[in-house]
Amino acid sequence: MRATNGTCTRRDFLKHLGAGVLAAGALAGAGCEDVNLDNPAAAAGETNAPPPAGGATHPPPAAPAAPQHADLAGDIANNHGHTVTLTGAQQDAGDAVTLLLTTGSDHGVPHTHTLDLEAVQVQAAAGGFNVARVSSTDLAHNHVVTFN
User: Fold this and answer.
1) Cα–Cα distance between 17 and 74 in angstroms, integer?
2) Per-residue pLDDT tens for 1-16?
3) CA pair distance 52, 41, nearest whole angstrom
4) Which pTM value belongs to this model?
5) Which of 132, 138, 101 shows the shortest CA–CA distance to 117?
6) Which residue has the higher pLDDT, 37 or 83?
7) N or C terminus of the chain with fewer C-beta within 10 Å?
8) What phi-psi label fits residue 54: left (phi over 0), alpha (psi between -120 and 50 degrees) or beta?
9) Are 143 and 79 in contact (CB under 8 A)?
């Protein structure tokens, strides 16, 4: 039954949706009588024939895309030789990351720190916003690291 304004009712919609699902199932099953489930390669139309002369039958994979963002160097407070970089690729991905502050020296003792950035912070830094986080505490100290 159609609603009086010419649109489908919920019942009509669900009825048509169900018919569409049944039709799709029937189409998916059509022509499958010859599939050999004991040999998946044959079922997929693959053969044991050697590749044509000249090499592979598939084009080579595309080169990875260049990062859309430039690397960002972190500004490290109370620094004594550390560096940290949020790469363009990490910004493009927009996922949470753990960065390593390179080896610094505190009173002659080499050490590193880690810096955890949540996905939203990586995305904010990539968007040009200031992001500040505190590094891990090592040798009884930590650093505030700011991007942008």
Assistant:
1) 54
2) 544 555 666 666 556 5
3) 18
4) 0.56
5) 132
6) 83
7) N
8) left
9) yes
76 near 83, Cβ under 8 Å?
Answer: yes
Q: Averaged over 65-87, what is the pLDDT?
A: 93
Q: Are 117 and 133 in contact (CB under 8 A)?
A: yes
Closest to 138 measured CA to CA, from 119, 116, 110: 110
How far is CA 6 from its chain centroid? Answer: 44
Per-residue DSSP letters for 37-72? Answer: TT-HHHHTT--SPPPPTTS-SSPPPPPPPPPSS--E
Residue count of the chain: 148
H or E element, residue 113: strand 109-117
The one-letter amino acid at 82 = H
**Cβ neighbour number for residue 128 with a 10 Å cutoff:** 10
Distance CA 75, CA 132 (A): 9
CA atoms of 36 and 43, how far apart (whole Å): 6
- C-alpha dihedral sign at 17, 19, 20, 26: positive
Asked if 65 and 84 touch (Cβ cutoff 8 Å), the reply is no
Q: Judge contact between 98 and 114, C-beta under 8 A.
A: yes
Q: Tell me how far apart the alpha carbons of residues 131 and 101 are, in angstroms, rounded to a whole number.
A: 16
Domain residue limits, the chain: 10-43, 72-147
